[in-house]
Design a protein that fits this description.
single chain; alpha+beta; 5-stranded antiparallel sheet; 45% helix; 15% strand
Length: 217
């Protein structure tokens, strides 16, 4: 649940969500998780007249943990021109769903446990829907939570790192074995070359002795 801070504590009753945002613009509010913050903003949007989508997040360079998250109005930004002005389009373009709206809520992780609202833009650049016409996207409780997804991403990243390290160690071991084989081959080649040289030298000596015997005869 949301915590109180400097007298800015809030009830979790959804009927007060829009009043909370209206009174305090959400800034300095605290949440125990990103999912709690997401549910708050989705509920606020549903009562106000807009839908919400997850925007980009910010990760720690130390452990790749998510330390910042933006939730925005679904009409944020604009559709890329390459999708709007496609030359190979057969069907009419879909209706415009993004209108450059700036409404959003930004959160930052504090002390590794609390999510604090650091920015809140309330104004929309488009007409809001009637609350009863806002599409119902279901409860986030039946979906994988943002924190669970982040945890899974970090686990997979660690697994990938470990596999790469194992691969590097295996490659190093194979390289060492190959170098040993090449060294043995080199030593064996030198040994064979010396044996061949000895045999050739022996043959020459025998031939020279035979030549000397012929001359003396």
């Amino acid at each position: 649940m949301m915590d109180s801070q400097s007298g800015h504590g809030f009830d979790s009753d959804e009927s007060d969500l829009d009043m909370q945002a209206e009174a305090y613009d959400c800034e300095s509010m605290e949440f125990n998780s990103r999912d709690e913050a997401r549910e708050f903003y989705i509920s606020y949007g549903r009562r106000t007249g807009f839908t919400v989508r997850i925007h980009h997040n910010r990760r720690s360079r130390v452990n790749n943990q998510v330390i910042g998250q933006d939730f925005v109005c679904s009409k944020e930004g604009f559709r890329a021109k390459k999708y709007v002005y496609r030359k190979d389009r057969v069907l009419p373009p879909p209706p415009v769903t993004r209108e450059g709206c700036q409404a959003m809520i930004r959160l930052a992780l504090r002390d590794g446990v609390k999510w604090v609202v650091t920015k809140f833009v309330k104004e929309h650049t488009h007409k809001l829907m009637s609350p009863n016409k806002v599409p119902w996207r279901g409860s986030g409780k039946h979906l994988i939570s943002e924190d669970e997804k982040d945890k899974r991403i970090r686990e997979l990243s660690l697994e990938l790192y470990n596999e790469r390290q194992k691969c590097k160690r295996r490659c190093a071991a194979y390289e060492e074995q190959l170098n040993m084989i090449l060294k043995d081959l080199e030593q064996h080649t030198e040994h064979v070359s010396k044996k061949v040289a000895d045999v050739v030298q022996s043959i020459r000596e025998i031939e020279e002795e035979q030549t000397d015997d012929s001359d003396s005869g």
